[in-house]
Amino acid sequence: MTIVYDNSKNRRSRERIKGRRTLNMAKKTKTVFVCQECGYESPTWMGQCICGAWNSFVEEKAASSPKEDDRRRTTGSARPMQLSQVGTREYKRVDTHIGELNRVLGGGLVKGSLVLISGEPGIGKSTIIIQTASNIAVHGKRVLYVSGEESDEQIKMRADRVCGKIPENLFVLPETNLENVEVACENIKPEFLIIDSIQTMYSGEIDSAPGSVSQVRACGNKLMKIGKTGNIPIFIVAHVTKSGELAGPKTVEHLVDCVLNFGGERDQELRILRSFKNRFGTTSEIGAFMMTESGLEEVADISGTFLEGKTEETEGSVTAAIYEGSRPVMFEVQALVTPANIGFARRTAVGADNTRLSMILAVLEKKAGLQLINQDVYVNIVGGLRPEGTSVDLAVALAIYSSLKNTAAAVRTLAIGELGLTGDLRAVQNADKIVREAARMGYERVLLPASNKRNMKEEPGGCRVIGIKNIRDAIRTFSSR
Ligand code: TYD
Ligand code: MG
Question: Most buried by CB count within 10 Å: which residue of 96, 336, 454, 457?
Answer without folding.
Answer: 96
